[in-house]
Structure formats: C-alpha cells, structure tokens
Amino acid sequence: MADLLKDLNHEQLEAVKTTEGPLLIIAGAGTGKTTVIARRIAYIIEKKLAKPSEILALTFTDKAAGEMEERVDQLVPYGFIDTWISTFHAFGDRVLRENALEIGFSPDFKVFSKPQQVLFFQQNLFRFELDYWRPLSNPTKFISSILDFFSRLKDENVSPAEFSQYVKRQLTLSKVEGLKAKGDEKAEAKKYKELAHAFEKYEKFKDEAGFLDFGDQVVKTIELFTRRPKLLKNYQQQFKYILVDEYQDTNFAQNELVKTLASSHKNICVVGDDDQSIYKFRGAAISNILEFKKNYPKTKQVVLTVNYRSTQKILDSAYRLIRHNDPNRLEVQNKIDKKLKSIKTNVGHLPQEIFADTLSEEADLVAEEIERLINQKSVKRYTYRDFAILVRANFQADHFLRSLNMKGIPHKFVGSSGLYQQEEVSILISYLTAITNFEDSLNIYNLITSDIYQLPPTDAIKLTSFAKKKNRSLYYLLKNLEIHSSSKRRHSERSEESQDPSSTASPQDDMGMGLKEFELSSESQSIIEKILNDLDESIKLSRRQNVGKVLYDFLKRTGYLTRLDRENQVEGQIKIQNIAKFFDKIKEFEQVASNNSTQNFIEYLEALRSAGDDPATIEFDPDLDAVNVMTVHGAKGLEFPVVFMVNLVSDRFPSRYRGEAIEVPEKIIRETLPSGDWHMQEERRLFYVGVTRAMDLAYFSWSRDVGGRRLKKISPFVLEALDKPKADSIFTKLSPLEKIEKFAPAPTSTGWQTSQQVLFDVDVLKLTQGSIDDYLTCAFKYRYVHILRLPIVRHHAIAYGAALHTAVAQFFRVKKSGQLMSLGNLLEVFENAWDSEGFLTVEHEEKRKAQGKIALEQFYKRESKTKDVPSLIESPFKFSLSGVTITGRFDRVDVRKGSEVEIIDYKSSENIDEGRANSQAKESTQLAVYALYYYKSHKIIPQKLTLHFLETGIEGFYTPTQETLEKTEKLIIDTADNIRRDITNNHFAANPKYFGREPACNYCAYNSICPFSLAKIT
C-alpha cells in the first residue's frame, strides 16, 4: 500500500483515496492524471472495495485505454481476466455482443468504419427517397455530409423516430431551423423530411445487413438498457465504481450512458479539464463537465495544479491566454484556482517568437533553429525526437516538411489525414489506376518515374512530350515502343491481353513511324519493358483476384517492400507502415463490397476522396528518432521538450468557422450550448493545448505572406499569451541570392540511418502466445510481423478457421444462456462470418465452405447431446511476468465440480489421428501459456489442456504439472529477453525452425520477399 501511494502530492493523494460518492477531478495539463486514475483503480482493488471486473474505466482512444491498463497491470499484476478498461465504443460493443440475442442482433455483427459507411450508403443510394440530397448530376455529392448529420444526431441520442417527429412538427408549423440552403420554409422542411426518411431507411438497411456504425455502439447500448431494466440492474450492480477520463470530450449520448450506469450508487469519478475541450466538431459537449456538480450535488471536487511537465514561464503564458475564455470556465463558475504551478523552479524562457516575410522563409527559420539546438554543445543536448512542429491543419505542414527535407533533418508527419498523399501510397494508387484506365497518363507518369521503376527524367519528359504532341495516351506510346525493342513480342498479343481500346490502331500509323526515330537509353528500354510486363501480369491477375491480392502481387514482383526493408532507415520503415495502413483501407473495402475487384476499389476510392475521406498516416511512435510534425489535435496527450507552433496568423489559427454541411437544428440539441463566441473559445483552448505540450522551450512562428492575395496579421492568441498589445514589425527577409541558395541539395548523408537506434520501447514488452510462436519459429519472421508489420495476403486457412470459431463461440454463448441454438442458426452464423479472402478459386472457396458446414453439422450432433456448459467463452486475459505483458484469449474454459478445470482450444486443421493430436497438445505454446495464466491468477493447475479438432471431433490433451508451468515461465522470460536484445541491436537473425526436414520458410507468408528464405531450395 505504501508503494501505491508513494510520490503522490497532497491533491493526488486525496483523489486516489476518495472512494465514495461522485468525484470531479479537475486535472490541468501535465498534472499526472493518468497516474491518479491508475493508482485510484489499484487502491480500490487493494482495499478490497471492488474486484477488477467491478470497476468500469472509460476513455476515448485505444491508446489511452492501453496505457491505463498497463499502469494498472504494473500496480496489480494478476487477476485481470475480465477487465473493463476501454473506450466508450469498445464498452458498448462488448455489452451489445454479450446481450445481442436480447434485442434480436447476431453477436457477430460488424462495425462500419466511415469509408465503409460511405460505400454502403452509395450501394443503396437509389433505395432512399431522396431528391434534393441526391442530385442526378452528381448523385453521391451529399453522402458524406448526410452520414455526418446522422452521426451528430446519435451524439445527441436522437433516434430516427424522434427526428421524424421533430420534422413533422416543423412541417405543421412551416418552420425549420439549421439548413443554410435558400428557399422558403416549406422547401427547407422538405429537405429535412428527406433526411428523416433517409435516417429511418439507413438504420433499417444497416440492421438487415448485420452492421452497426460507431454511434450505434453507444446509442444502442442505451436503448438496450432502456428496454431491459433487469439487464441494466445487473450491470449497475456489477460496476461498483465508474471512472471517466477526458470527461470534457464526452458527447451528450456518452454522458447519458454513464449517468444511467451510475444512477444507483453514484460512485462516479470523472477526470477532465474544461480548458482542454477541443472536440466540439466531433460532438463533444463541454457542458457535461461544466454542469457535473449541478447533476451530482454531493460532488467532491479535487483540483490538480502541480505541473510536472513545463517550465513556469510557459505555463504563465498559457494561463494568460486561457483567461480570455472567462467566464465560461470552471475556474470562474466553481470559484477555484486552476493556475498551474511547475515543479521546475527558476528555469526556462517565455515562448520565443519567429517571424518572417513569407511562409517558406518561416519554415526555413524553424528548421535552422532545430539544427542549431541539435548541434549546441554547451547546454542541454537534444535528439530529433525531442522536437515537435504543431500545425492547425494538415495542409499547413507542407512547407515545414520541405524545409526539414532540404536540411537533411529526419522527420515524420503524423497526420490525422494525408495517407493518400504520401509518396509510397500515391505510387500504389497510380498503379491500381493504371491497370483499370489506360488513358490516365498522369498516373502512368507517376508510376514510371516513381521510386519503384525510376525511369530517367530526361526520357520521361521525351515520352510525355511526344505523347501530348500526338494526342495519344502515355500507355499507348509505351506499348508501341515495344515494336522496336529487343523482345520482338507481337503488338497484337499485348493488345489482346490488355483489352486496350486504343490498341486497334496500326503500328504503322504516324505515331508508330515517329517512334522509329525515338532514341531512348538502353536502361530506359529495359525499364519500360519491365513496366509493361508488370502491367500485363497485373491486368491478367485482376480479372480473377481481388484488389488486395493484385496489389500484394505487384509489391512482391517489383521487390518494393524488400527494398524499403533493406534500406534499414527511418524513412523506409515509415513508408512500410503507411503501405500497411493503405492495405487496411483495402481490407475495409473488401469486407463490405459485393464486388471486390480492382476497378470497383478505384471507383470506391474516388468516391471516398471526393467526399473528403483522407485517412491518417502512421501513428505517433515516441521511440523513432525524427522530428515530429503533427496537428495540435494530434498532439493532445503528448509532450515534447521543444515545441514549435507555426503558421500563427489570423484565419489559420484561429481558423474560420465554416459550420457543418448540414446543421443539427438547435431545438433537438440536448446539451447546454455555451454562450459567447464558442468557436473562438474552442480555438483558444486548442492553442492552450499546443502551448502546454512544451517541456523546456516553446516557439511561436508566423509570417505575413502565406500565399494569399492579402498579407496576414499575427494570431491574436500569440499576443494574448505574450501579453503584448501588438506584433513586432521587424521581419526576417531574405535577399534574392539567399532565396536561391535555399534550394541547394540536401547533404548526401541525411542522418536517417537507424542501425544503432532503438525503434521500440523494450522496457514494457507486450507478447501473445502467437508472437512467442513467431519468434521461436524464426526471429526474422517476428521482425516482419511485429516490428515492421508488413502487410500480407490473408491465407484461406485463416479465413476458414475464423468462420468456424465464430460459429462455435456463438453456439456456446447461447448454451451458456440456458438455450440450445438450432443447426440452421449455427450455419447462418458461419455464413455471415465467412470471408472470401485468400481462396485460390471460386470452386476452392465453395468446397471449403461445404467442408466447414459438414464439420459444424458433426459438431452440432456431438455437442447438442452433452450437458457440459462452458464457464468462459472467447474470454480475454492478460498478466505480467518480469516486465513482460502477455495477452491472450481462451476459446473455452470449463470449471467442473471439485474445481476440476479444462481449457479447450478449437482447431480447424485437416484430419489428424489421436496420437498426433496428443503430441500437438503437449507441444502447444498456446495451451502452455493458457495454463500458466490460469495458475497465476487462480492458484489452480488445470487438470486438462485440450486441442479439439472440429472436422473430426478428435481431441488431444495432456495434464500440466508444476514443472511444465515453470518451463513455460522460463520460456516466456528467455524469449522476451532475446526479443529485447534484438530490438536494442536492431538485428533479428534468420533462424527458421525445421519441421522434420522442411524449414518453416515453406509455410511462411513472407517467403517470397525474405532475402534469407529457404523455401526455394527445398
């Protein structure tokens, strides 16, 4: 207990030890709120006030939930078989899946991402009764705006029926608010009527297809509790304590969910800071935290003001700024002191100003200051990762990225958008476009000059100029060049394969004759020959394979991933991670699309981009030694020794308020709307968040000329923070010669090498039984899967096994509830869970599906006769061991009379005899880890560890002993030590395990790109 409360200041200690009634913790920036939340959870468990499963802790991001779990795990290492530390959406998802049958849902429902929503709506577009919102000249124009509108209604917990009632009332009154479109009131009401009908239909179509969206995970949980009071009571009795992090970011619906759960005991603790409420555009209701004491009159209030991050001068500047939001702040309304006090005394400077004449000059000055601080020797030494450049919007980063690049400063752009614009992703989009549209010369040009093919610029210019002169596509020109190449392949063969409509032209036309005089280097001729071969192969493959396989085949054939990996640079690894994120977008498409061809994907991608979809680039990695360039929103929750807030001019920061495309009528907004200029107040809070990310140094930079018609004024927030009446008028202005010299090439050695750089945090290592198996199979494979996270095409055996597991898990959930699922429902769950990815042909897929149904029919015959009821189904677990966090998921655990425990893992492998089944069970790392966890958390050694082979019903098993458990523990610790060593040295050996005489390479998904693969010589 002493260690649990060690090093806490007086206010933190008070927050941790307050365990009864509503508690409002107002936690300023850098005051250690995560520490307080984790210690409070551990304190409640330690004092035996509640079990871990009786505490619900909610936050907003998976990363924040994971960090909270890690902190708690370190304090209370065992017993977390059923933790409830999660995001709001993950909590709702879990409740809905556990009780889906109560409201007529299938527990294997899928959740739409925003792009999947767009595709789904587009596929059903002409089933909606739309007129204004579906203009025939551009039918998809409003899809994204409509979906955003539906999402905002769900933020306010407004159902389709309630919205329809509102519209009917307004039609009766001939009055309606919100829409900015022109026309009389009846016309406005008609537009809302269309939306009301569309909202109802959207929900109906979604339910029929077995999908939910993100908003549903909250509002349908509220609906479930409303419709099933007994179920609500069970959860209220279970969760004796409820904690909410970042409470200022909750929307109305999320707050209603929390209030519903806490209504019986009022043991609710919320942690937040109204001065850091920056997500109004996502529906956040700042009134939730401002009115908490009003909703809970007996609230105890604890204010954390001791700052462990920044210098006092930085904090004073931030405080001067945020006071301009008075009186709409808790400090005024609750009559408290929120001024932050730094533990760093007598150090630091006020935020420094950087101002220039133009934006490009501003960016250069920022890069030069980073270079100066990196090279300084007499004061504190900084590394590249210590710097952050914060922009208000993603597009504002371009000039700063360019300046860093010109200086040879390693950097990474961690954007909430911008994935499609990244060079490595842009190449892949160009390639996919090229094989679906031969006339798109721009994408062909991007492809041939890319890092993959590297056609010399002089020859690329020759080709494009000639094609433009002859009014032909660049693809047509490249194809006809082959007539004169050494390969001598007939033009007609390529035309037949490509089915290019332009290929009917004769090779002897005026263009063909001109090509005879065309001089290209032999290097260029070889490159063009490879480009055409690759395109031909891809076109053939695209006729019978989905887009994911086509793209993966292209990467494999060109060796692009292997080349990026071999470079062993920060830049190469960032590119690989962005490519992996692009494959995630393809996966999302394939999960929803009825036709997952390359052509359909390109059309889908174009629709998304026109609707404003622009996904995030790589996630923030604190261990990557590169300057961090990101938005202020993206920096929330992070800290950096040196922060540059840039482009600080009016109309950019603060930004202009543009409103929502379809405004939610004020009369159905259920939160209490703030008074005054709420947009300016939100922008000021965002600026405050940016300033308080800085630990040692903060810089404000701006320039008058940012590229528009008029010169810009300095942001009023800079003047407020520095307490200045007006801006300084002396600007750094470069001479013409200096401007030219700025374009000198970057140094040859850019400092991007990472051979001695630790790319991942090895202090707290996370492993699963799968990652342990991967490392023991081959350390180099572990690197591919868990370090680089290289994308792979999913094997058909994985898809087959996943569908079987989903069906079996649902069968046992129903059985556990005291019912027996019908065979028809079991097969229906299997069908709904089926994924076509990875199968060789349609025939292969159909035969495999039929085989799965037969296996389930046999399973049903066996299991419907037994009376055994599982204690746990698909239950996650986690435990710590010598600084290693091990996570996993039980398929099934049976606890029988006399505390006899059997852990069962279901396998979809092909036929196997009993002897081999027993051997596999004994050698299974997975079962060994399961047994170790169960022993650590329950102090009971399971009597039986079983592998159940679904296709035959054959079981293999063994009984673990204290000795085998100790061996497993040693195996985990040794493996973790070896992984830490390899990460630290940035070197993973290619040491494939052998199965008999066969190397693991033969079964490895990466054998086609691994430079050490032995698969080709076996």
UniProtKB/TrEMBL annotation:
UniProt-listed InterPro entries: DExx_box_DNA_helicase_dom_sf (IPR013986), DNA_helicase_UvrD-like_C (IPR014017), DNA_helicase_UvrD/REP (IPR000212), P-loop_NTPase (IPR027417), PDDEXK-like_dom_sf (IPR011604), PDDEXK_AddAB-type (IPR038726), UvrD-like_ATP-bd (IPR014016)
Annotated segments matching region Disordered: 487-512
Keyword Nuclease: yes
Residues reported in the UniProt entry to bind ATP: 27-34
Name of the protein in question: DNA 3'-5' helicase
GO biological process: recombinational repair
Reaction catalysed by this enzyme: ATP + H2O = ADP + phosphate + H(+); Couples ATP hydrolysis with the unwinding of duplex DNA by translocating in the 3'-5' direction
A molecular function GO annotation: exonuclease activity
Signal peptide: none
Entries under Pfam families matching the protein: PDDEXK_1 (PF12705), UvrD-helicase (PF00580), UvrD_C (PF13361)
Keyword terms: ATP-binding, DNA damage, DNA repair, DNA-binding, Exonuclease, Helicase, Hydrolase, Isomerase, Nuclease, Nucleotide-binding
Species for this entry: Candidatus Curtissbacteria bacterium RIFCSPHIGHO2_02_FULL_40_16b
Family under the similarity heading: Belongs to the helicase family. UvrD subfamily.
Any one GO CC term of the record: cytosol
Stretches assigned to the UvrD-like helicase ATP-binding domain: 6-311
Domain UvrD-like helicase C-terminal: 312-637
EC main group: isomerase
EC number from the UniProt entry: 5.6.2.4
Keyword hit for Cell membrane: no
Superkingdom of this protein's organism: Bacteria
